[in-house]
UniProtKB/TrEMBL annotation:
It catalyses: biotin + L-lysyl-[protein] + ATP = N(6)-biotinyl-L-lysyl-[protein] + AMP + diphosphate + H(+). Residues 1-174 form the BPL/LPL catalytic domain. Its EC number is 6.3.4.15. It comes from the Bacteria. This is biotin--[biotin carboxyl-carrier protein] ligase.
Length: 240
């Protein structure tokens, strides 16, 4: 994987999406600071200079977008397992967040771009809080987590460990899809057995007991009457 580090950019995902058509091999773009970080559905990801790890990895898949279902969850598994090996215990919130002590530590945003010829580029964006200044937390408007301990670790070493974990996961994902990650995701599930709500732009779509994910990455919810499976789309999950 080729690696580029820039001191500052708007959004590493936006940069790689713009360059995807001209990429010949996987590329990791690390920004020391992002000024217009993105979340899902037009939301933003905020970070302070030097206080977070923000990067995107462009990876080419030979098959179409359906084959990518569950990829954000598999990315979560790879990041969580790598952080676990570094001594930071995190849990996964469906579909695309890493939590530490119950609050959001990292977010994952996957976007796709057409490749010339067959296949598709997946741009996997990650924002991970290292240090969270009070002022920034106020701006975000909810409690969030950070790992100052990781901020003291060599930045290149931390990035290399995360990249190794992601590359190993991606090679496996290419062969098996999400199916071989479901059990690992469920072991890391933050809300297993908890009552949660699924929201679509603030409106409650479903409420039930979270029972993990299936082989395609859909969240299983026991509503009392039946078990339903929810695809990620743009919905949000909240603890009740
Ligand atoms: P939600 O958490 O509302 O269900 P989501 O998990 O899909 O949505 P994303 O769209 O992935 O969230 O990320 C954007 C959201 O993350 C923002 O709306 C904001 O609440 C939160 N956020 C922004 N910056 C940070 C940060 N540095 N650390 C933790 N959370 C952040």
């Amino acid at each position: 994987v080729q690696v580029e580090v820039v001191p500052q950019t708007g959004s590493t995902n936006a940069d790689l999406l713009a360059r995807a058509g001209a990429l010949a091999q996987p590329l990791l773009l690390v920004a020391e600071h992002q000024t217009a970080g993105r979340g899902r559905a037009g939301r933003s990801w905020l970070s302070a200079p030097g206080h977070s790890l923000t990067f995107s990895l462009a990876w080419k898949f030979e098959s179409g977008p359906q084959a990518l279902s569950g990829l954000p969850l598999a990315v979560g598994v790879a990041l969580a397992e790598t952080l676990g090996r570094l001594g930071v215990q995190v849990q996964l919130k469906w579909p695309n967040d890493l939590l530490k002590d119950g609050d959001k530590l990292a977010g994952i945003l996957i976007e796709t771009a057409a490749a010339p010829g067959p296949g598709i580029w997946a741009v996997i964006g990650v924002g991970l809080n290292l240090v969270m200044p009070d002022e920034l937390e106020r701006e975000i408007g909810r409690a969030v987590s950070a790992v100052p301990w990781l901020a003291r670790m060599d930045r290149d070493e931390l990035m290399a460990a995360l990249l190794d974990g992601l590359a190993a996961m991606l090679r496996q994902f290419e062969r098996t899809g999400f199916a071989t990650f479901a059990a690992r995701w469920n072991l890391l599930h933050a809300y297993q057995g908890d009552t949660v709500r699924i929201l679509d732009r603030g409106a409650v779509l479903h409420e039930g007991v979270a029972a993990g994910v299936d082989d395609t990455g859909r969240l299983l919810l026991d509503t009392g009457e039946r078990r339903i499976a929810i695809a990620a789309g743009d919905v949000s999950l909240r603890l009740k």
